[in-house]
């Protein structure tokens, strides 16, 4: 158990809908990262938040957004969902700003868009 | 763009043998490297890391080797066990930048 929690574990929804994925980092960790993992790709970095501020953006679509709250938990919002958004979404956390730090991953949210 | 790793090759080893998983990276400025293990249905789990000022680092049953000249990283697992069966990812990082993950290598351990 990494100490990172994610909810929900599974999510089934329809195209065009909007969902919110939630992540609680390890106790004391200030950075939260979001990743997408689909069958035909490896882990794709989406976005990094540090202490409530966006720090880096990766391959995140404009239909997706995220935020990190004062209590350091984070939410990833996916809107206008498409079939191709079906994937595993992982959250990871690290102690500080991220350089040279191990990222500890949560168990993931499996999203299925029908 | 920059990329790390291979396209999900599979390595099959006999239980008790040593395993070597390889990873090529393309960003010569990367100075931090990590190996992760991902079991089916679970999130990636940290195994071992190494900084660019080192060539070798050992953990419990695992060793990571870094060859900066040819931009190559390897993970050696001693006395491979069935519980080692998983997908292994290498990742690289550079100061101020995100980690970039490879596609992964499947390790299958035969009993």
Keywords for this entry:
heterodimer, A: 114 residues, mainly beta, seven-stranded mixed sheet, four-stranded antiparallel sheet, 0% helix, B: 111 residues, Immunoglobulin-like, six-stranded mixed sheet, 10 strands
Q: Which segments of chain A are poorly predicted (pLDDT under 50) over 5 or more consecutive residues?
A: none
CATH architecture of chain B: Sandwich
CATH top level class name of chain B: Mainly Beta
Mean pLDDT of chain B: 89
Radius of gyration of chain B: 13 Å
Q: How much β-strand is present in the residues of chain A?
A: over 45%
Which value, in Å, is the CA radius of gyration of chain A? 13 Å
The SS-based structural class of chain A is mainly beta
**What is the general shape of chain A?**
globular
Biggest beta-sheet profile of chain A: 7 strands, mixed
Distance between the termini of chain A: 31 Å
What is the strand tally of chain B? 10
Largest protein-protein interface: A-B, 23 and 26 residues
Helix fraction of chain B by DSSP (H/I, runs of at least 4): under 10%
Taken in chain order, the helices and strands of chain B follow as: EEEEEEEEEE
CATH homologous superfamily label of chain B: Immunoglobulins
